[in-house]
Amino acid sequence: MIENSKIRYGMFISMRSKMRAHYLQHVLFEGLGSIEAWLQNSGYEISCTQFFNSGVLPEIEDIDLLIVMGGPMSVNDEQGHPWLVEEKEYIKTAINAGKPVLGICLGAQLISNALGGRVFPNSVKEIGWFPVEAVESDSSFIFHFPQKAEVFHWHGETFSLPKDAVQIAKSKGCDNQAFQIGRNVIGLQFHLETTPVTAAAIVENCRDELIWGEYIQSKEEILSAPQDRYSTINGLMGEVLEYLQLNKG
User: By CB distance 3.0 to 4.6 Å, which of 9, 110, 161, 235 could disulfide with 165?
Assistant: First the structure.
């Protein structure tokens, strides 16, 4: 009995010592994608705030990594989505506490806006598979993207760089594609977490946006992407997450 109690106590301590990743989700069809497997394989416990269900947020000290997902709304839609006010404050608090924070699409825009940046319509919408280019930096600690990578986009707005942010990726259609603040915050305008399942989900739910445009692909073009394209961006997503994990405060 004593030995069994020791085992149970050891398991309890082990469970409590696990890192906890928390993500903020704005719509059901934009989930973690490939991030979920990476977190599980890296030993994280995963929790979520779904603002379309309830806005319950954990204490900042109880999380080790914050991931802010995408969504079709604008960060400026506070009247229609009043929870955006609390969400921005939560993101700012997490950043100030030194937590690793990753923002994806709307999530990157939320980080920018929470720190005083502007979010506004881009000159063109980017929907589909288009390349981004790395922006070189003299900073030794900056995450370095490949010189060129074809990634998945779905956005009509862009953002100004918040204070102390360093631009780390750009594209012909949208200048600010990625930024970094210090060692613990990265914002991505594009989606590296996309899988065939999540691509199909966003196409199904946002297909009314698939009208002709210079940087808007058709449903067929989007969904015919080969598997190796998904594998490449998911691998890059893993590198971003590993970087944030290694550089957490």
Answer: 161
